[in-house]
Task: inverse folding
């Protein structure tokens, strides 16, 4: 196992925000996401950079008919009804052409056809592992649906998972092993980045401090040594280092600080032979596409320099 620069993206379209955003408010951004994904892939390709795309399992389906055939019998019965994913079926279109917000197989094919990109899972239904009402059995059924649809559509197994909303439930790790998943993204070290149930994670202070930490160093450098990470039960935790927050138009004056903060953390990792794991959602690039792409290009160029100077490697989550 080598230390490396890692990128993971949570690909989810409407499924990642449907509990708190109306579809009409999301459409413009989701249309932009479909433009941003091939641009991102082009940039990854031209810079020879690999990434892991943790994909909501529903997005493997090409039609409503196909999707419904994979829905598990055991479904999460969340206490907060807004989280229940399958109520969305009443509104969903027949296929991707009719409903490009809830279906996403074409972008997934673009990802799959780009060299060096790993397709992981973000659970089948954007599953919330710390919410009341759901059980470990529901979670296992959800992941089994992911494994099956990936096998059926691509003939490939799934190695890596990113937990929706970063809701990490230690008790559920055994399930990963049962379904053949070995790598998971864990949260950045330190109290500031630990997730509790969603309501707690909305703690205002925690949110504010995380926001400030994007620009100014209040939580350290985010680098980690993969070789010193404990492997439990044959599972490998790949900690996140930083959320690559999208271009903020209102606070654009601070954008250079944000980029500088990321680049410094990457430099620290490269100099000390450590790993650095940047993550975001392709949906974050769906608005202000050009600005976001410019920033990504800047970061990938920086990585190239670090590769040349410090021999920093780059790999997918499943290559650790
Ligand atoms: Zn998500």
Result:
């Amino acid at each position: 196992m080598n230390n490396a620069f890692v990128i993971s993206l949570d690909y989810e379209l409407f499924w990642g925000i449907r509990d708190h955003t109306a579809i009409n408010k999301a459409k413009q951004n989701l249309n932009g996401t479909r433009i941003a994904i091939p641009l991102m892939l082009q940039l990854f390709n031209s810079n020879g950079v690999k990434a892991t795309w943790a994909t909501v399992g529903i997005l493997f389906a090409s039609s409503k008919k196909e999707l419904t055939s994979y829905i598990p019998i055991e479904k999460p019965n969340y206490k907060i009804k807004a989280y229940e994913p399958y109520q969305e079926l009443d509104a969903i279109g027949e296929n991707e052409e009719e409903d490009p917000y809830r279906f996403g197989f074409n972008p997934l094919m673009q990802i799959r056809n780009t060299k060096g990109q790993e397709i992981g899972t973000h659970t089948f239904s954007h599953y919330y592992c710390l919410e009341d009402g759901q059980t470990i059995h529901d979670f296992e059924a959800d992941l089994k649906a992911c494994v099956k649809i990936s096998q059926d559509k691509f003939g490939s197994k799934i190695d890596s998972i990113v937990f929706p909303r970063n809701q990490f439930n230690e008790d559920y790790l055994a399930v990963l092993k049962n379904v053949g998943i070995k790598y998971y993204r864990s949260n950045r070290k330190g109290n500031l980045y630990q997730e509790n149930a969603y309501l707690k994670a909305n703690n205002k202070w925690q949110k504010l401090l995380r926001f400030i930490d994007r620009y100014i160093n209040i939580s350290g450098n985010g680098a980690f040594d993969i070789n010193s990470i404990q492997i439990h039960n044959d599972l490998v935790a790949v900690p996140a280092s930083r959320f690559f927050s999208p271009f903020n138009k209102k606070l654009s004056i601070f954008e250079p600080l944000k980029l500088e903060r990321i680049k410094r953390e990457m430099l620290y990792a490269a100099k000390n032979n450590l790993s650095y794991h940047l993550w975001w959602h392709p949906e974050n690039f769906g608005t202000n596409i050009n600005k976001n792409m410019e920033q990504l290009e800047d970061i990938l160029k920086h990585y190239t320099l670090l590769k040349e100077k410090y021999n920093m490697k780059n790999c997918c989550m499943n290559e650790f």
Remarks:
- The mean pLDDT is 94.
- The beta strands are 4-11, 51-55, 117-121, 160-161, 183-186, 236-239, 242-243, 276-280, 313-314.
